[in-house]
Every structure is written in C-alpha cells, then in structure tokens.
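User: Hi! I'm working on a homework problem where we have to compare a predicted structure to a textbook description. Could you give me the structure for the chain below?
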Amino acid sequence: MAADADPPPWTPERYKQEVDLVIVEMLRVPGEHKLPYLKGRIAGFPEPYRNAAETILLQREALMDNQQPPGPLAFLREAIQAVPAVKYALGVGGVVAVIAIVAGFGISYRVAVVGFPIVLVMMVLLLIFAKLAGAKPQYFLAPFVILTCASIVIMVCTILLIFTGVFFGWPLDLRHWLT
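Assistant: Happy to help. Predicted structure tokens:
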C-alpha cells in the first residue's frame, strides 16, 4: 500500500529541485541526445510549471554550451559545413590577404598587379602537385621532372634578363635600380 502513495505535490521548492536535478543529469547526456532527453523530462512537469521549466532549462543549456563566440573563422566553418563548396572562399581570402599584405608593407600596387598572375600560376602548380601526390609514383615522375626543368629554365632566364637590364640596359633599361 505504501508503494501506491502519491508523490509529493508540486511546490516552488519541488520545482526548483526537479529543475536542478535535470540540469545535473544533462551534464551526463551526449550533445546529440540532449534535446530529446530535455523534452522527455519537461513533459513530466505539471502544466503550470512546464513552460517555466522549459524556458529555464533551455536558457541554462544555451549558457552552458561552450561554443566559440561567432567570429569570421567560426562563421566560415559553419558556412563550409552547410555548403562544402564554400571552402574555396579560403583560396580567394588568401589572394585578398596577399594584396592586403602588399598594401601593409607600402609596396606599390603595380608590384601586386604583376605579382598576382605569378601567384595564380603558383596556386595552379600547387594544385597539380597536390593531385599528383596522391597518384602512383610512375605517373608522378614525368610531370615532376618536366615542371622542375621548366621552373629552373624560367628562373635562370628571369635572373639573366634582370641582370642584363640592370647592367646593360637590355631588354629594359633598369639601370636606375643601381642608384
């Protein structure tokens, strides 16, 4: 007969104890199961206390959630998670950052305009190497050798043309660089 006894009536003190108990139990519930658990526990509250319990518990859960404050990187991560193609925005942001660095150092924008295509070529080469790195070694060797030889030839030609331009005035007169 003692088992058939009614639970104590709902009072503000019992309400506070139940809410505190739910809060403690929520600490043990994994993140993806918190909302269903919370809904089930709130359903056990009588009607005059249910809305207040739901409001208090959801507010406390939101405050206890250790999320980073929204910032540019958090916003970008959420955008990438929602739309995976947004990850290419990082590449665009990197190019814009290069321009901002050029401006920050006080370098002429003409240098940035000349350097931008070079950066794009380097980005394409980086993409090619990234794709080839996952390929089998026999497919990787020929493009690597060709690209290495071409890079060395281009570098030597650039150095040679700058040298002749500074000291001999051909193909461009760059003698003013010495003064």
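For your comparison, note the following. Residues 9-64 form one domain. The mean pLDDT is 76. Good luck with the assignment!
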